[in-house]
Design brief:
It is built from 14 helices and nine strands. The chain has 403 residues and is an alpha+beta fold. Strands 1, 2, 3, 4, 5, 6, 7, 8 and 9 form a nine-stranded mixed β-sheet that branches.
Length: 403
């Protein structure tokens, strides 16, 4: 019997009416997520209870079309909800961000594929973008025998999306997103990591799987803001740039994990300060002013990274692709990497102040430090890789063609 919440939940997810309601619902889950931190670390995937709570809350619908039961609240809401969840459990915040961003991506497929996906209102899709094995164009669709790597949250999903190069007549023709049912996958339990242990980002194997044409969409169509799903999903965000929506929250789990570390550090610091009853001057141990300065600096730095992501979402997440020059597209990608690396640097500076007790395996300071660094280690968030594109675009240098 399949016990995944995508199949066992009998009710439809809630439909959230506003940004503030979404944030409040996320905050209401923080205590439960924090209580289950150890369980997710031990299982190396999100606990079933976390998945059920998030599905029922309606939080996964903030990027989902209203036509299919979502709220279409947009990227700003996805960012703020991700911070709330990741500050309680970075691994759950990571998979939430990916699952929610994929609701935007899923809204771009042909209508027939969307009807198939959202026949189940609790549908979840994981993804792979690092793959092996040729995807061959055949009559009526495509065939793929290969592997995909780092598919976060795949254990709980009933669909997989995969960005792959398609081969036609022996030559690579274009990049396509494929949509594949969970039943066509084999999951390899190989997620043994230092950080983000609870994401279950495992390898998937596809043994000569057939994918019909209607379950695919070209990357070029998405980049042009004219994917098939635009015919029925008319909200502006579905014709806006991919880096403002789909990857628009990629850096936010690192920011949220950093916020969680700040919370832990504040509690720990407060326990070391004594306030005598006879005076308003607290006793500060040696070196405490410097520690306070580092804490304030780290907190302000993390707040700035979050503000940058929200500003870009406000500017670009509903703006037509045709109105966003290549330099601004590359700026979006640059800023996403910058926010993640900024969060990483902030927590590393603060962790230096944590002392020997933070080295213990059961230290939550250590967990949030590890998870911030792991979240910022995603290839799409590597600074040297993302910053180069913006410089080239700003100077008018040739850019590699998109296929």
């Amino acid at each position: 019997m399949d016990t995944r919440p995508v199949y066992t939940l009998s009710s439809k997810p809630a439909v959230i009416e506003s940004h503030d309601e979404a944030v409040e619902r996320a905050r209401a889950l923080r205590g439960r997520l924090r209580e289950r931190l150890g369980k997710g670390q031990e299982m190396r995937r999100p606990p079933d209870e976390n998945v059920a709570d998030i599905l029922e809350s309606g939080l996964l619908g903030v990027m989902k079309p209203k036509r299919y039961g979502g709220s279409e609240l947009g990227t700003e809401t996805m960012i703020d909800v991700t911070v709330e969840l990741a500050s309680a459990d970075p691994s759950t915040g990571w998979v939430y961000m990916l699952w929610t961003a994929h609701m935007w991506l899923q809204a771009l497929w042909p209508e027939k594929a969307m009807d198939e996906m959202w026949e189940n209102p609790n549908t979840l899709a994981s993804s792979v973008v690092s793959t092996t094995g040729d995807v061959l164009a055949v009559d009526g669709g495509y065939r793929w025998a290969g592997r995909g790597f780092f598919s976060s949250g795949v254990d709980h999903c009933n669909w997989l999306t995969a960005l792959v190069p398609v081969v036609r007549d022996g030559e690579r023709a274009e990049m396509r997103w494929l949509l594949i049912p969970r039943e066509d996958l084999e999951i390899i339990d190989d997620w043994h990591t230092l950080g983000l242990r609870g994401t279950g980002s495992k390898t998937v194997v596809l043994n000569d799987v057939f994918i019909p044409e209607h379950r695919t969409v070209t990357r070029l169509a998405i980049a042009a803001g004219q994917p098939p799903g635009r015919e029925v999903n008319t909200h502006p965000m579905y014709g806006a740039p991919e880096p403002a929506n789909f990857t628009g929250a990629m850096s936010v789990p690192a920011v949220g994990a950093a916020v969680g570390l700040i919370d832990q550090f504040l509690q720990r610091l407060g326990s070391k300060i004594e306030v005598p009853e006879t005076t308003n001057s607290p006793y500060l141990p040696e070196g405490m002013p410097q520690t306070m300065s580092r804490l304030a600096q780290a907190s302000a730095t993390i707040d700035s990274a979050r503000a940058l992501m929200l500003l870009n979402a406000q500017r670009y997440a509903r703006r037509p692709v045709t109105e966003v020059p290549i330099e601004q597209d590359m700026r979006l990608r640059r800023d996403t990497a910058f926010a993640a690396q900024t969060a990483r640097r902030a927590v590393n500076t603060l962790y230096e102040e944590s002392g020997g007790s933070a080295l213990a395996e059961n230290s939550q300071l250590q967990l949030f430090w590890r998870d911030t660094n792991a979240a910022a280690a995603h290839r799409g968030l590597m600074w040297d890789w993302q910053s180069e594109g913006w410089v080239k675009a700003s100077l008018g240098l040739p850019m590699p063609p998109l296929t």
